Amino acid sequence: MAPLRFTSSSLHNFLRPVTRLTSSSNLQIKSTTQQPPLRNFTTSQTMASSTSFMDAVKGRRSHYQLNKEAPISDDKLEQLVNDTVLHTPSSFNNQSARLVVLLKGEHDKFWEMVKSVLKPQIPAEQFEGTAKKLDGFKAAYGTILFFEDPEPIQRLQKAFALYADKFPQWSEHTSAMHQYVLWAGLESEGFGANLQHYNPVVDQAAQNEWKIPQEWSLKAQLVFGGKVGQPGDKSFEPLEKRVFFHGK
Length: 248
Fold this sequence. Notes:
- This is Nitroreductase family protein.
- This protein is of the alpha+beta class.
- Helix content is 44%, strand content 13%.
- The protein has helices at 12-19, 43-59, 74-87, 104-118, 124-138, 150-159, 167-188, 203-209, and strands at residues 66-67, 97-103, 142-148, 192-196, 217-227.
- Strands 1, 2, 3, 4 and 5 form a five-stranded antiparallel β-sheet that branches.
- Helix 1 crosses helix 2 (43-59).
């Protein structure tokens, strides 16, 4: 099965603030994909868009009790993923993120695959708890696999040798931003989601099953579905220990 391909979206406004975060504008690699035209926003439109974005940021939580109900259509889900991939920044605009979306039966297949891969590696007396946890992920509607393609990264390492040792780290940043934007975006559409990391144990099996290039590196799995329960309480460290302003 080939990775899903995505079309343009009415969720442009939600993702618009993200496009302003692109880095190193003077050292961008030109994309071979034509980008959708950017709209001009008035001050009030920009503020409304920023407010919507921050509402999604504040609303994003880890939901582990999920079911197979979807609050939006698969077409709208494709649009959300498409906008995320088009407009989430990457270092030097290298666009190295690769996403594979698994829904319904394909999603179930993935989590059964994880279970079968882990079973020989976990003591029998401990596996029951692991299987129960994996069945909880399987109970959801879908999973997004986040990969990074090393080819654009290696190309940049050759082109900008001064930063060669940094590009793999920046690739991780790129993947993390895609994960976060989609997590918040799914939440804004009514889904619950949680982020998992069953790589590298499942990488080979998944790449074989869905004909994914072997050189791609799996970074994370975003599980999403209808919300069943409420997330746990969230605690916060004091901002005084985490944020520092100078010149205000």
